[in-house]
Amino acid sequence: MSKSKRTVKKLLSTWNLIPKHSLKERYILICLPFDTIPFKIAQRVFFPLIDEHGIKVKAIIHQAFFPIIKNIDTNCFIPVLNSDIGRSLIPSENLAKEIFQYNYIAAADLNIDFNLTTAYCVHNSNAKLRIGFKSDYSDLCFNTQIDKKENDSIESGYIQIKSLITSLYRQTSENNT
C-alpha cells in the first residue's frame, strides 16, 4: 500500500459517511476477502455461519464473487461494486449507509493483506470486537489482531476469527435473554 500511516489514519476517521445504526438487532459484520484464494477458504469456513439460523450476519462481498452466492440467502450479503469504492478507497455514501445501518457486536476483516475499504468498514462499525490480520496499519483499525505467520495456513486464522466472533455473539445473546 502506497499510503502513509498518517494518511490511512485520516481516511479511517472520515465519519461524514457514517449514519447511526437504526436497527436494534445485533449482527456480525464479515468483510469477505477481495482476493480469490483467501475468498475460497473464507467461503469454506464462514458460509456455514452466514447460512446458520439464529446468528445474524451481514457479509460484505466484492462483485467478482457474486456468482458464488446465488444459492444462499442474498439478504445476508452487502454487495460491493467497483463503482462503490472511490479513489481514496473509502466506500461511497450509499454503500456506507447500507453497511452502517446495522448494530454490530463483532466485525471481522478477512483480507490477509491490508485492504483500506474493508478495514474502514470494520473500524467504523462500532462493534465491540473488531478483528483483522496484523499489518503495518492494523493498530489503527482493529482491537484484536491475528498474527499470520508465514507457516500458518489462512484457514487456521479464519477458524480463530470465527471462534472469537461466534463466542461473543452467543455470550451477548445469552445476556440479553
Entry summary:
The chain has a single domain (26-175), classed as Glycogen Phosphorylase B (Rossmann fold, 3-Layer(aba) Sandwich). The chain is built from 6 helices and 6 strands, in the order αβαββαβαβαβα.
Q: How would you explain this protein's 3D organization?
A:
With 177 residues, the chain is an alpha/beta fold. The protein has a single domain, classed as Rossmann fold. The protein has 6 helices and 6 strands, in the order H-E-H-E-E-H-E-H-E-H-E-H. The protein has helices at 5-12, 36-51, 93-100, 116-123, 138-141, 154-175; strands at 26-31, 57-62, 77-80, 103-109, 129-133, 144-146. Helix 2 (36-51) runs parallel beside helix 6.
Element pattern in H and E = HEHEEHEHEHEH
| Strand arrangement, major sheet | 3-2-1-4-5-6
The Cα radius of gyration reads 15 Å
Mean pLDDT rating:
84
CATH topology: Rossmann fold
Percent helix among the residues?
Answer: 25-40%
CATH architecture: 3-Layer(aba) Sandwich
Question: Structural class of the secondary structure composition?
Answer: alpha/beta
Q: Could you describe the largest sheet, including whether it forms a barrel?
A: 6 strands, parallel
Fraction of residues in β-strands: 15-25%
CATH superfamily: Glycogen Phosphorylase B
Q: How many distinct folded domains?
A: 1
What's the layout of helices and strands?
Blueprint: H1 5-12, E1 26-31, H2 36-51, E2 57-62, E3 77-80, H3 93-100, E4 103-109, H4 116-123, E5 129-133, H5 138-141, E6 144-146, H6 154-175
Parallel strand pairs: 1-2, 1-4, 2-3, 4-5, 5-6
For this entry, give a set of tags:
6-stranded parallel sheet, globular, 6 strands, 6 helices
